[in-house]
Protein backbone atom coordinates (compact mmCIF):
# COMPACT_ATOMS: atom_id res chain seq x y z
CA UNK A 1 0.00 0.00 0.00
CA UNK A 2 1.12 3.55 -0.71
CA UNK A 3 1.99 5.52 2.42
CA UNK A 4 -0.80 7.95 3.34
CA UNK A 5 -0.17 11.63 2.64
CA UNK A 6 -0.16 12.42 6.37
CA UNK A 7 2.66 9.86 6.88
CA UNK A 8 4.64 11.72 4.21
CA UNK A 9 3.88 15.09 5.80
CA UNK A 10 4.92 13.89 9.23
CA UNK A 11 8.21 12.61 7.79
CA UNK A 12 8.83 15.86 5.88
CA UNK A 13 8.37 17.86 9.09
CA UNK A 14 10.16 15.42 11.43
CA UNK A 15 13.11 17.74 12.13
CA UNK A 16 10.83 20.64 12.96
CA UNK A 17 8.67 18.45 15.20
CA UNK A 18 11.69 17.11 17.12
CA UNK A 19 12.82 20.68 17.69
CA UNK A 20 9.37 21.47 19.11
CA UNK A 21 9.49 18.44 21.42
CA UNK A 22 12.89 19.57 22.70
CA UNK A 23 12.26 23.30 22.79
CA UNK A 24 13.15 24.94 26.14
CA UNK A 25 9.57 26.28 26.39
CA UNK A 26 8.29 22.68 26.44
CA UNK A 27 11.11 21.36 28.64
CA UNK A 28 10.53 24.08 31.22
CA UNK A 29 6.74 23.75 31.03
CA UNK A 30 7.26 20.12 32.03
CA UNK A 31 9.79 20.70 34.81
CA UNK A 32 7.86 23.70 36.12
CA UNK A 33 10.65 26.26 35.67
CA UNK A 34 9.02 28.15 32.77
CA UNK A 35 8.64 31.75 33.97
CA UNK A 36 4.93 32.53 34.41
CA UNK A 37 5.51 35.76 32.54
CA UNK A 38 6.57 33.71 29.51
CA UNK A 39 3.44 31.56 29.73
CA UNK A 40 1.41 34.74 30.04
CA UNK A 41 3.03 36.12 26.88
CA UNK A 42 2.23 32.82 25.10
CA UNK A 43 -1.43 32.94 26.17
CA UNK A 44 -1.93 36.46 24.88
CA UNK A 45 -0.44 35.64 21.48
CA UNK A 46 -2.29 32.34 21.37
CA UNK A 47 -5.57 34.15 21.95
CA UNK A 48 -5.09 35.88 18.59
CA UNK A 49 -4.19 32.56 17.02
CA UNK A 50 -7.22 30.72 18.48
CA UNK A 51 -9.69 33.42 17.45
CA UNK A 52 -8.48 33.21 13.89
CA UNK A 53 -8.24 29.44 13.96
CA UNK A 54 -11.93 29.34 14.80
CA UNK A 55 -12.84 31.78 12.01
CA UNK A 56 -10.76 29.73 9.55
CA UNK A 57 -12.63 26.53 10.44
CA UNK A 58 -15.89 28.26 9.60
CA UNK A 59 -14.60 29.81 6.37
CA UNK A 60 -13.07 26.55 5.14
CA UNK A 61 -16.29 24.68 6.02
CA UNK A 62 -18.14 26.97 3.58
CA UNK A 63 -16.00 25.57 0.74
CA UNK A 64 -16.22 21.90 1.70
CA UNK A 65 -18.64 19.51 -0.04
CA UNK A 66 -18.25 16.33 2.05
CA UNK A 67 -20.96 16.55 4.76
CA UNK A 68 -19.00 14.88 7.58
CA UNK A 69 -15.91 17.04 6.97
CA UNK A 70 -18.11 20.14 6.85
CA UNK A 71 -19.70 19.14 10.12
CA UNK A 72 -16.34 18.47 11.79
CA UNK A 73 -15.07 21.92 10.79
CA UNK A 74 -18.22 23.70 11.95
CA UNK A 75 -18.13 21.80 15.26
CA UNK A 76 -14.39 22.63 15.50
CA UNK A 77 -15.12 26.32 15.10
CA UNK A 78 -17.77 26.14 17.76
CA UNK A 79 -15.72 23.88 20.06
CA UNK A 80 -12.98 26.47 20.00
CA UNK A 81 -15.44 29.14 20.93
CA UNK A 82 -16.80 27.13 23.84
CA UNK A 83 -14.50 24.37 25.14
CA UNK A 84 -10.98 25.65 24.65
CA UNK A 85 -12.10 29.22 25.22
CA UNK A 86 -13.49 28.22 28.61
CA UNK A 87 -10.13 26.82 29.70
CA UNK A 88 -8.38 29.90 28.38
CA UNK A 89 -10.79 32.19 30.22
CA UNK A 90 -9.87 30.33 33.39
CA UNK A 91 -6.15 30.90 32.67
CA UNK A 92 -6.77 34.55 31.86
CA UNK A 93 -8.55 35.19 35.13
CA UNK A 94 -5.94 33.26 37.16
CA UNK A 95 -3.18 35.34 35.55
CA UNK A 96 -5.22 38.55 35.62
CA UNK A 97 -5.05 39.04 31.85
CA UNK A 98 -7.79 41.54 31.10
CA UNK A 99 -9.63 42.10 27.82
CA UNK A 100 -8.00 45.50 27.70
CA UNK A 101 -4.50 44.05 28.06
CA UNK A 102 -5.30 41.56 25.30
CA UNK A 103 -6.49 44.31 22.96
CA UNK A 104 -3.50 46.53 23.57
CA UNK A 105 -0.85 43.79 23.24
CA UNK A 106 0.73 43.97 19.77
CA UNK A 107 0.50 40.75 17.75
CA UNK A 108 4.06 39.37 17.61
CA UNK A 109 5.74 38.56 14.27
CA UNK A 110 5.45 34.77 14.38
CA UNK A 111 1.81 34.73 15.53
CA UNK A 112 1.02 37.18 12.75
CA UNK A 113 2.89 35.15 10.11
CA UNK A 114 1.33 31.84 11.15
CA UNK A 115 -2.20 33.25 10.90
CA UNK A 116 -1.34 34.99 7.60
CA UNK A 117 -0.09 31.64 6.24
CA UNK A 118 -3.40 29.93 7.06
CA UNK A 119 -5.41 32.71 5.37
CA UNK A 120 -3.08 32.51 2.39
CA UNK A 121 -3.85 28.80 2.00
CA UNK A 122 -7.56 29.54 2.24
CA UNK A 123 -7.51 32.39 -0.29
CA UNK A 124 -4.77 31.32 -2.71
CA UNK A 125 -4.54 27.57 -2.15
CA UNK A 126 -7.21 24.87 -2.25
CA UNK A 127 -9.62 23.43 0.30
CA UNK A 128 -7.14 20.56 0.73
CA UNK A 129 -4.14 22.80 1.40
CA UNK A 130 -6.23 25.05 3.69
CA UNK A 131 -7.32 22.02 5.76
CA UNK A 132 -3.74 20.75 5.80
CA UNK A 133 -2.47 24.05 7.22
CA UNK A 134 -4.72 23.41 10.26
CA UNK A 135 -3.47 19.88 10.88
CA UNK A 136 -0.13 20.44 12.70
CA UNK A 137 -2.01 22.47 15.28
CA UNK A 138 -4.04 19.43 16.32
CA UNK A 139 -1.48 16.75 15.74
CA UNK A 140 1.65 18.37 17.23
CA UNK A 141 -0.18 19.42 20.42
CA UNK A 142 -1.66 15.95 20.77
CA UNK A 143 1.82 14.37 20.49
CA UNK A 144 3.23 16.87 22.97
CA UNK A 145 0.30 16.21 25.34
CA UNK A 146 0.90 12.45 25.13
CA UNK A 147 4.63 12.86 25.78
CA UNK A 148 4.27 15.26 28.69
CA UNK A 149 1.39 13.52 30.47
CA UNK A 150 3.75 10.71 31.56
CA UNK A 151 5.45 12.97 34.12
CA UNK A 152 3.10 15.95 34.10
CA UNK A 153 4.22 19.29 35.51
CA UNK A 154 4.58 20.40 39.15
CA UNK A 155 2.91 23.74 38.28
CA UNK A 156 -0.87 23.36 38.37
CA UNK A 157 -1.55 25.70 35.47
CA UNK A 158 0.98 23.90 33.25
CA UNK A 159 -0.45 20.53 34.27
CA UNK A 160 -3.91 21.75 33.23
CA UNK A 161 -2.49 22.90 29.89
CA UNK A 162 -0.89 19.48 29.29
CA UNK A 163 -4.10 17.64 30.20
CA UNK A 164 -6.11 19.63 27.62
CA UNK A 165 -4.06 18.15 24.80
CA UNK A 166 -3.91 14.58 26.05
CA UNK A 167 -7.67 14.15 26.56
CA UNK A 168 -9.50 11.34 24.67
CA UNK A 169 -11.75 13.95 23.02
CA UNK A 170 -8.79 15.86 21.74
CA UNK A 171 -7.04 12.69 20.54
CA UNK A 172 -10.25 11.76 18.71
CA UNK A 173 -10.47 15.20 17.05
CA UNK A 174 -6.82 14.89 15.99
CA UNK A 175 -7.44 11.49 14.39
CA UNK A 176 -10.49 12.82 12.57
CA UNK A 177 -8.46 15.71 11.19
CA UNK A 178 -5.72 13.28 10.04
CA UNK A 179 -8.37 11.19 8.25
CA UNK A 180 -9.88 14.28 6.60
CA UNK A 181 -6.48 15.31 5.21
CA UNK A 182 -5.74 11.74 4.06
CA UNK A 183 -9.06 11.62 2.19
CA UNK A 184 -8.37 15.01 0.56
CA UNK A 185 -4.89 13.78 -0.39
CA UNK A 186 -6.33 10.74 -2.12
CA UNK A 187 -8.51 12.93 -4.31
CA UNK A 188 -5.67 15.31 -5.17
CA UNK A 189 -3.34 15.29 -8.18
CA UNK A 190 0.45 15.32 -7.72
CA UNK A 191 0.71 19.14 -7.82
CA UNK A 192 -1.90 19.64 -5.16
CA UNK A 193 -0.39 16.89 -3.01
CA UNK A 194 2.94 18.73 -3.11
CA UNK A 195 1.15 21.95 -2.17
CA UNK A 196 -0.45 20.17 0.80
CA UNK A 197 2.89 18.87 2.07
CA UNK A 198 4.38 22.37 1.78
CA UNK A 199 1.46 23.83 3.75
CA UNK A 200 2.03 21.23 6.46
CA UNK A 201 5.76 21.93 6.72
CA UNK A 202 5.13 25.69 6.90
CA UNK A 203 2.59 25.31 9.70
CA UNK A 204 5.06 23.03 11.52
CA UNK A 205 7.72 25.73 11.16
CA UNK A 206 5.38 28.34 12.65
CA UNK A 207 4.43 25.94 15.46
CA UNK A 208 8.10 25.54 16.39
CA UNK A 209 8.63 29.28 16.26
CA UNK A 210 5.55 29.91 18.37
CA UNK A 211 7.44 28.38 21.32
CA UNK A 212 10.52 30.41 20.43
CA UNK A 213 8.48 33.60 20.02
CA UNK A 214 7.08 33.18 23.54
CA UNK A 215 10.42 32.09 24.99
CA UNK A 216 12.23 35.24 23.81
CA UNK A 217 9.15 37.52 24.03
CA UNK A 218 9.55 38.32 20.35
CA UNK A 219 8.83 41.87 19.22
CA UNK A 220 8.88 43.62 15.84
CA UNK A 221 11.82 45.69 16.89
CA UNK A 222 13.87 43.20 18.89
C1 LIG B 1 -0.05 27.99 18.19
C2 LIG B 1 -0.96 26.92 18.64
N1 LIG B 1 -1.00 25.78 17.96
C3 LIG B 1 -1.83 24.80 18.34
C4 LIG B 1 -2.64 24.95 19.41
C5 LIG B 1 -3.55 23.85 19.85
N2 LIG B 1 -4.89 24.01 19.39
C6 LIG B 1 -5.45 25.17 19.21
S1 LIG B 1 -7.00 25.04 18.56
C7 LIG B 1 -6.94 23.42 18.50
C8 LIG B 1 -8.05 22.61 17.94
C9 LIG B 1 -8.98 22.04 18.92
O1 LIG B 1 -9.25 22.77 20.03
C10 LIG B 1 -5.72 23.02 18.99
C11 LIG B 1 -5.31 21.67 19.09
C12 LIG B 1 -2.59 26.16 20.11
N3 LIG B 1 -3.38 26.39 21.18
N4 LIG B 1 -1.76 27.13 19.69
TrEMBL record:
Pathway per its UniProt entry is: Cofactor biosynthesis; thiamine diphosphate biosynthesis
Gene3D superfamilies per the record?
Heme oxygenase-like
InterPro entries, alphabetically? Haem_Oase-like_multi-hlx (IPR016084), Thiaminase-2/PQQC (IPR004305), Thiaminase_II (IPR027574), Thiamine_Salvage_TenA (IPR050967)
Which EC number(s) does UniProt give? Answer: 3.5.99.2
* Gene Ontology cellular-component annotations: cytosol
Catalytic reaction equation(s): 4-amino-5-aminomethyl-2-methylpyrimidine + H2O = 4-amino-5-hydroxymethyl-2-methylpyrimidine + NH4(+); thiamine + H2O = 5-(2-hydroxyethyl)-4-methylthiazole + 4-amino-5-hydroxymethyl-2-methylpyrimidine + H(+)
Sequence ranges assigned to domain Thiaminase-2/PQQC in this UniProt record: 11-215
- Tell me a Gene Ontology molecular-function term this record carries: thiaminase activity
Instruction: Cite the entry's keywords alphabetically.
Output: Hydrolase, Thiamine biosynthesis
| Pfam families listed in its UniProt record | TENA_THI-4
Q: Which GO terms describe its biological process?
A: thiamine biosynthetic process; thiamine diphosphate biosynthetic process
* Hydrolase is among the record's keywords: yes
The UniProt subunit note reads as follows:
Homotetramer.
User: Hey, which family's this protein in?
Assistant: Belongs to the TenA family.
Cite the NCBIfam families for this sequence.
Answer: salvage_TenA
Role according to the record: Catalyzes an amino-pyrimidine hydrolysis reaction at the C5' of the pyrimidine moiety of thiamine compounds, a reaction that is part of a thiamine salvage pathway.
Q: What is this protein called?
A: Aminopyrimidine aminohydrolase
Name its species.
Lentilactobacillus kosonis
